[in-house]
Amino acid sequence: MRLEKLNREIEIYLKEKQEAEPLFRFSGELFRLQERYAGQIKPHRSWSREQARELFLQGCYLLKDAPPAIAPGLFRSILGEIVEAVIRHFPRAEPLRKIMRQPELTETRLPQFLAGSNLLDSRELEKQVRAWGWEGDEPVESSLAAGTVKDALAPFYIALAAAVREEIDLALWGEGFCPVCGQDPGMALLNDEGARILHCSFCRTCWQFPRLECPFCRNRDPQRLGYFYADEYPGRRVQVCERCKSYLKTAVVKEIGREVILELEDIFTLELDHLARREGYRAGRDLALLQ
Ligand SMILES: [Zn+2]
Ligand SMILES: [Zn+2]
Question: What angle do CA 207, 212, 216 make, to 5 degrees?
Fold first, then answer.
């Protein structure tokens, strides 16, 4: 059902932003592919409901010390499909195909690579991928290659996050980062009741967070929190914090008039990212593929 909505939403956005068609189409395909694989993964939970509650109250995200097991063969299947999808929508990215021959990503060496460092830290991942020699391979630079690896890891986290949502009350969570995977929110929305919901664009968990507080530095000084908007994007705001100079794009459901899919909103409002950066703000997360 969600996939039907996804297709419908893509068509709505395309009417307004035809020039971003490859990005919307790719994003839809990536979304479907990740959901399909996530549905095949049997997540292993290493905590009880009680332990999860404890962790939440301490401000520890669930996967902090218990990252999901990544089956090397399955990871490679996912990666291979994503690489082909990227190339189908962006033919110039053809050199990306050689990532499948990268020694670190072979089935035997993959566990070592995955255990080696915190690969969810985009900067860290990009540093590793850069060492594989992607520079000069324009337009397939290390940020695209790293983003693709991260996209292929996502289904394992999406599967776990879906299981977590079914059993654990996320209302206990009061931090600005994702309660499941620990990533910073990629986008936010103000729902029908005006509550602010943060969204993890990696594992797709949503959680509520105070409206007048910066999720990145926890600044609550109303004088140093604000937002800007652009007339071409009604119902969209860019919330900014003057203390840590971060920004977060926010969709206001009441003003837009429908429940949007934030992954697509993110593409639709890319110009707002450029505006925010030009004003000296930085995103609290990774935009590798979209830059
Ligand atoms: Zn997450
Ligand atoms: Zn801040």
Answer: 65
